Amino acid sequence: MQITVNEELKAYIDPLTPDEHAALERSILAEGCRDALVLWGDVLVDGHNRYGICQKHGLPFQTVQNTRFQSMEDVHLWMIDQHLGRRSVSDFQRGVLALRKREILAARRAQAVASAEPGTPSLNDAPQDASKVATAPEPNPLKSRADIAKAARLSSSQVVQIEKIQKQAAPELVAAVKAGAISINAAAAVASLPAEEQKSAALGGKDELKQAAKRVREVYRKVSPEAAASSVALPEDVQALQARVASLSAENQSLRAQVAELQARLMA
């Protein structure tokens, strides 16, 4: 049977470490491939590492079809849920997966709303049976950050930091987070730096990353303790924040002067 490895699906899986891959390979060589590979048609959905090892050594394996999938979106959501439930998946990757699930569900809701509008053409070229297009309501649509945090077993602040890393981090910094060379909190701080500085810090290793995070936090601390704790503010925001603080201080002084003037009038 021909099996197709979809690179987009494979990207959902963090690669095993050399030790983990070697342990899995020893297990399969000793006991065979005990768990069936999950397919959707000829597309491999679950079991990429086992499939690669079996192909390498010419070992037999079993397959099972998941007949509930009706679209590639269903496949993506199933894979995300599978990985969200695994203890071996890192905090960062769980956050990334939960955010990806939110995007898929939001796009699905938008498509459903658009399809429900009179006269709106289907997004697909060919007409489809409505019974096949309809899907069961998602029990948790992940509309809020708290929903995402719960699904990923993280705090809401960690979700904010992961969103920032996704939007601003250089590829080298993202790789460092995935490798465990830097924490999510510290990576969110370093992501505030220009891309070249991020890259330089990441290539410098753990110590350089720690120093870069420390430098950024010191800048935040001069502006606001909350910004230092959350690592959400950006260096380019510092001047704006300082200006805002100055503006609020001036406004406060003006209000105090007005109150004093009113009090003087009342006492006159």
Give a quick summary of the entry:
The chain has 268 residues and is mainly alpha-helical. The protein has 14 helices and three strands. It starts with 6 loop residues before the first helix and ends with a helix.
Gap between N and C termini: 98 Å
In terms of DSSP E residues, the strand content is under 5%
Beta-strand segment tally: 3
Q: How many domains make up the 3D coordinates? A: 3
List segments where confidence is low: pLDDT < 50 over at least 5 consecutive residues. Answer: 123-136, 233-242
Provide the residue-averaged pLDDT. Answer: 81
Helix and strand element order: HHEEHEHHHHHHHHHHH
Structural class, from secondary structure content? Answer: mainly alpha
- The rough form would be described as flat
Main beta sheet: 3 strands, mixed
The side-by-side strand order for the widest beta sheet comes to 2-1-3
**Number of helical elements:** 14
Round the Cα radius of gyration to an integer and report it: 26 Å
Helix content: 55-70%
Can you give keywords for this protein?
single chain; 268 residues; mainly alpha; Conserved hypothetical protein from pyrococcus furiosus pfu- 392566-001, ParB domain; 3 domains; three-stranded mixed β-sheet; 14 helices; flat
